Amino acid sequence: MGIQFGREICGNLDIAETREWLVTNGIGGYASGTVAGLLTRRYHGLLVAALKPPLGRTLMLAKLDETILYGDRFYPLNTNRWGDGIVSPEGYLCVEQFSLEGTVPVWRFAYADALLEKRVWMQQGANTTYIQYASVRATAPLQLGLKAMVNYRDYHGITQGNSWQMVLDPVDLGICVTPYPGATPLYLLGDGATATIVHNWYYGFDLAVERYRGLSDREDHLHAATFQVTLNPGESFTFVASTESHPNLDGAAALKLRHTQEQKLLGQWKASRSIKAKEPPQWIHQLVLAADQFIVDRPLADEPQGKTIIAGYPWFSDWGRDTAIALPGLTLCTGRSEIARYILRTFAKYVDRGTIPNRFPDVGEAPDYNTVDATLWYFEAIRAYHSATEDDALIQELFPVLADIIDWHCRGTRYNIHLDAADGLLYAGEEGWQLTWMDAKVGDWVVTPRIGKPIEINALWYNAVRSMANFARRLGKPHQEYEAIANRTLARFSRFWNQDLGYCYDVLDGPDGDDLSLRPNQIFAVSLPLVGAQGIAPLLNPMQQKGVVDACGQTLLTSFGLRSLSPEHPQYRGRYGGDPLQRDSAYHQGTTWGWLIGAFVCAHLRVYKNPVQARQFLEPMANHLCDRGIGSLSEIFDGDAPMTPRGCIAQAWTVAEVLRAWFATEE
Question: Which molecular function term from Gene Ontology is one that the record holds (predicted)?
């Protein structure tokens, strides 16, 4: 049995509104909501279209308010909470069961002796959402009514309707919504239904999660039209919302295609695995499907098949750091090396002054390059790809770009990123900039600036230069210079070890000296493949490696990842919440990060050489698949028990690192 809830979850609004579903379209668009059908975020909607793939995300169809007339009784299936706190109607009380078919959410509404099934999915490669209703049990016809609530705004925004007049035009089998001249039209269609134009604003939808986040928590949506259709027992009806004027309206064919695509993904994954490997549990199968939700198109003029990775849903775009970290788990561990190749080639086009972009802005301006680690993780992604495929052709193609990156780092590039000739360690940072993954910034306040020589940056640098030496050797190119650079880093990396504390400094040579805060970044000095691989000198000796793993395990480890700061530190924050200032001040000051569990498991495996025990650290994630983002894994969790999930409901590098670590323990 896959993921499935009954009335014990669906009928309890306090729980059902915290369980969120997600479907995606492979170009950056998505649909998301709660099991209860209640809007709780500004990011919820049945069609959040990527109008400039993979960005330009725009909320177009917020929800459908559904009603059933069966016999002589009227049943509301929708649920809304209003600004005065009243929940009306309470359609969640009709939900007898919620489940996932692959990634397709399925509701079963029970009323009298009848049962209605509802499914939601998207067409891959198109801004098209399907909502299908099937009368699976009934003794008489039912009349289904659908109030289409539309909007047109950036997905980060919020709408106050006021006197906004949208243009609503009847078209064959539905209506066309044009919010204003020049806007992308929305087509609402349903073969067999009667569509009646309404144009009536509904004011004051309450968004509880936005209130928790300290943001505006009221929104208005336009009731554009009502669709009505009669379903006889055994019949189904598919409602389609699309930016295309003539999408496929055959719901059965569209659903079959979606299931076929997901079976193909699972088939690719299974075909890539060793025939000696044991069959993974069902929750790993679910993660393989979840992995695909983050892989999207980023076509370029000279790379029409360009690909990238969405960092997290519902609000992140594609980030260089997240893409590079997530690539091995999302593509190589799922048997999709060709996707990895596209992504690596795509990002090579954006290298500038020896760095890849940190972030592509939502509105499409020039990329931001304020990162020191994204480029080093890019090296590790290439190493992992080559290790899995032995694709020398790609290494040959990218080698000039990689050589230029190393050269820029040695002589110095933006944000004072440079190799210190005195000790061979990489320095990075300028006042007012956040360059590592601990990148929270509120106004001009960088919460964890980490200016100096961060430990994971130097572990990544060593890993990258060793990789470069191996690439050069593989291609018959000079490799001695890269070996020499790596050896200089190795010779002074011991500076990070604090003998008195039994673990590593987090940052050396910062404005205030060396930072002895116990943070998880040191785990990469043990976990990265080339910091201690056979035949390559390790950065830390066996005693020090064990000290790092034990310090992280005994102080930072939680059920869902590693805390970003020791609970014993005076600046530790064990709860993540509140307004943006409160949240960002806790983001890397104690909050648990799910993606770090991958590095911890691999480091633990290297030190203790016990794959069964290492894999046990991943098992709580199986239960988490039924929490918050159903079928996926969250971005962050509270540092304090019970480690409540926070942040994005589906995070690329969390899913990726759990998959990568699972299969590392298998090998």
Answer: amylo-alpha-1,6-glucosidase activity
